[in-house]
Amino acid sequence: MNVAKTYEADSIGSWTEDKLDILRKYSAAYSAILNKYNFHYVYIDAFAGKGKHVTKKTGEPVKGSPVNAIKVEPPFREYFFIDSDIAKVKALEERIGIRKDVHYFIGDANRILIQKVFPDVKYDKYRRGLCFLDPYGIHLNWNVIEAAARARSIEVFINFSIMDINRNIKRKSPEDIRSSDKDRMKNFWGDDSWIEIFFDTSMSLFKDTPEKKRNDDIAEAYRQRLQSKAGFKYVPKPLPMLSESKSVIYYLFFASHNETGAKIAREIFSKYAKERP
Q: Which of 68, 92, 235, 256 is a good FRET partner for 156, with 20 to 30 A between their CA atoms?
């Protein structure tokens, strides 16, 4: 059976197309710069999917982030594609093919990144990596972020799903949040400090429930954590990715130890922000 042909492509909105285009542009700039030096640089896609989408508006095919990365010139030295869905990985493998420079992994990206991928991207061995962390919701562990920052050799794009947070956490009072969602949030945030950041828990005679913080305030608190807690040197303000109704679905973050990388990411983010109606 040809998995790539039988596995239905998921439909995406314009915000996802923008995200893919942003990553493609940055990947091209990143590769062009590192190719000039004696670095072994790699591309890492932790929630890779099957490499193909279709637009919601027209049904036209759209290349996924792994396929875009493969087509970047000059090419990366190696590619690491991870997904927990075996059918998606097989579909991606059929689409890209079996190659010595491409490594496919099936399983939990949080574990695979720390145990099998990041250790190979050593700073003192002149290795560098660009890592795309695009989970569905907040299914990303903080220890992955810390490991990437600690390596000093890895730059990351992070999908911060404020939609998942709003639906399952922020719209409720702290005592009404399901324990499974509290655990997910703690794993994503790194500790329980998110409760004080998300909610004003100071009560008064005029307040029955805690006041909820704005989306932008939460995103800014996460940006500060990427710097002060994880240890990334440069974390530009994230780009809010908007739905057709102009509500924020997620924030796209970039974090790096490299000033040039941060400057390029900031310029790309600014361009997209200005082009919006």
A: 92
Domains parsed from the chain with CATH numbers = 3-161+222-275 (3.40.50.150)
In 10 A of CB 74, how many CB atoms? 12
**Quick one: tokens of 258?**
């490299």
**Alpha-carbon gap, residue 29 to 42, rounded angstroms:** 14
User: Angle CA(90)–CA(187)–CA(45) in degrees, nearest 5?
Assistant: 30
pLDDT at 270 over 90: yes
Among residues of the chain, what percentage have pLDDT more than 90? 72
Residue 174 binned pLDDT confidence (cut-offs 50, 70, 90):
confident
Instruction: Please write the tens of the pLDDT for every residue from 222-248.
Output: 999 999 999 999 999 999 998 888 889
Cα separation of 6 and 190, whole Å? 39
The pTM for the full model equals: 0.91
Which residues lie closer than 8 Å to 164 by C-beta, 6 or more apart?
A: 137, 138
Place of tokens 């324990």: 179
Quote the CA–CA distance of 185 and 196 in Å, as a whole number. Answer: 13
58 burial class (0-12, 13-18, 19+ CB within 10 angstroms)?
exposed
Give the number of other CB atoms < 10 A from CB of residue 211. Answer: 10
Half-sphere exposure of 9 (CA within 13 A, CB side): 18
